[in-house]
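Fold in tokens:
===
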Amino acid sequence: MYSFAQLIYKLSNSTKTNEKLQALVEYFLHGDEKDKVWVIALFSGRRPRRTVSGTQLTVWCTELVNLPIWLFQECYHTVGDLSETIALLIPEKSSYASNSSPTGGGREGASREGAHPLHYYVEKFQQLEKAAEEEKKAFILQSWQELNSRERFVFNKLLSGTFRVGVSQKLMVNALAKTVKLDPNVIAHRISGHWDPATTTFTALLSEQSIQTDHSKPYPFYLAYALEGTLHDLGEPADWQAEWKWDGIRGQVIKRNDQLFVWSRGEDLITEKFPEYAILQNRLQNGTVIDGEILPYKDGLVLNFNVLQTRIGRKNITKKNLQEAPVGLFAYDLLELNGEDIRHLALTERRAELEKLVTSLQLPWLQLSPVVAFRSWDELTSQRGQSRNINSEGLMLKRKSSAYLVGRRRGDWWKWKIDPLTIDAVMVYAQKGAGRRSNLYTDYTFAVKDGDKLVPFTKAYSGLTDKEFAQVDAFVKRNSLEKFGPVRTVKPELVFEIAFEGIAASNRHKSGVALRFPRISRWRTDKPPDEINTLEDLKKMLELYGK
């Protein structure tokens, strides 16, 4: 665990890509073989499932350090992170006291005597998943006392299922490429799919055999950057294909070895979530991979994403779910045909084969994502304005000669989203953030007017500069009216413009609406609170855009 904790510390405390890359290269060169497999898994989103609750961790920690719950809670509200609070409260053993802070300095060197490697802990988490509470407690208390504070912080993050690290999968893949001398695109493909870090070796994972033996393995998704510059910078309109940018779940449908697999872009195997697709197991040829968007779809219309959310996260999909939230698959691309990887072909060639395939299947819910016809950039700009009418986020622009690449790239694919919806609101509640913002009030709740009342309708915690966050934090501390645990009620004086991608009706919110991707667009220092928008304004938006 020591080496992994040191790696996390280096990655978390560097803002330079080259420094992070070098730290990963060093780890993959010298790290424990089994630990390296777990690092690949963790950095590509395969986190251990939560073994215990936050409440259990809190109680066990207070018992261990003989601290009253109220004082623990005060510490937690100050620190802003449960894992770090526990790591700081448990005393260090003198043998490694020099490494006492999960976020501060510490010694370098080999693992401490008596410390276990990373894989020991994460695999123990798996073994304890269904164990009795006392057995879990005994293991966790023992681990807390044998780990130093930095290791304990990482241990808690893994244990609670909240492990995050500011490293892209692309950076990890590039580090591996420098270590094992393989092309990054090859590595990205080999580490995708369904594999068990507990039983897979580092060598086997990166070998060609990993593709041959795992029939479910998806291809790395090709992603687009937001359009930079102007449309005219792209050159001739005739060189580009335009499609609607849909708001659903990006996925790959795979038929190999007489089996059907459905993968999300986040590399979750979601086949059982969409039983509608089961018919493809008999209708598709082996060696077929379709890239597309899973969308709520009924009677030839794409529905609001909010409809699809009623099925996301459910363990079991009922007949009622299927009726209330029917789905379609809008096919974008064909990546494999007759068992052959065709990603290297031009988009026009892949699209032609995709059109043949979808047409031959004649399934009403399986649609080709429509190509938007245009002759000039001005004409395309005009068509983009119709996006919200069909529940689209805007347009995708793809160079007709482009291959299907790996990851987010500039040049051949661009997303050109419509401008977000906006509304002016006043801040009414504030809460401290997490991580480096744990001492600042950076999580806010906003309200609109309803007659003489203020009605909260959304939360947001992004969109301001560090300087602006500090200024708002100072305001909150000077103007708090009430305290409810970590939340402060503040004087309703600060006005902000809130941007969001969509709006839907919601029975769970007092306002009656739910926003999609709300964030702070700007701080309206020019507008007084009595000029903010109203609940009626929100309801009019719901009528216009909440289809």
About this structure: The mean pLDDT is 87. The chain has 20 helices and 20 strands. The first strand starts at residue 222 and ends at 226. The longest helix spans residues 347-361.
